[in-house]
Amino acid sequence: MHRVRRRMMSVLAALAMTVGVCLAVPQAAHAVSHISVTSTTVAAGDTFTISFNGTAGFAMTAAGENFYAGSSTLGGLPAFTTIDSCTGNTAPCTNFLTIGQRVPLGDLAEGQAFSGTLTLRVNPGTPSGSFVLRYQLYGGGGEATEDGPTITITDAPPPEADIAVAVTAHPQLGILVPHLTYTLAARNTGPAAITSATVTAALPPGASATNLSAGCTTSTGTVTCTYGPIADGAHATKSFRVPLHLLSLGPVTVTGTRSASAPTDPNAANDSSSATCNVISFILASCP
Fold it and tell me: Which pLDDT score, from 0 to 100, does residue 284 have?
């Protein structure tokens, strides 16, 4: 009886080992990747970066991470975006047919980790809309296409151009027509080109202005100068004279202020500037 029992236990143990070996046989696994994006709201003309990583569940030949636009009224991803840069690639990143973009990853061994980035620029002029960013690791087979975040495309922000106003002065002294010359400089610090601008100069009480540059006019206590287009990084100047007379004494301060410009000026901190000349007599003055 004991001998039979021992034989049955041996058979059961062998069967358990056989079952265990069968259960341990690896099954075909799906390749898995994960993504994130730097922003889910992107203006036309701007970029966003997709980061991806994962581990190959089985050996793959000529693998790559593919990206598509799903649920989109904008068309396939290559229709409204352009590849700006990528990392983790083993060959140039390219459009995948006409429906997506691809980051080549080369041959991947089973269990091999992979990662990279793809930076896409939304083409200027792309209308506002949204799409679901879809992704897939693929190479002779691969994971099913997955839905990532929804990306919203907005209209490009209106252009801006910052004008920095500077006022300088220098004296012209002597018996004949002594005067102070004031120059109003409008410098475009960008980023867009200026199409037009106006700088208004405030004169000290009792002062008048003569010899105005073209585009400038004067009324009691002010000089107004208009400027045409000014490219990013360029500047334009206008000038006028403040005559001196026998009773001209003390400081003569002129303050110039941007009063209008197009496109919008985003920085009011540099919209105004002043210059002061100290007049001792109509034949002696200094303008620091």
Answer: 79
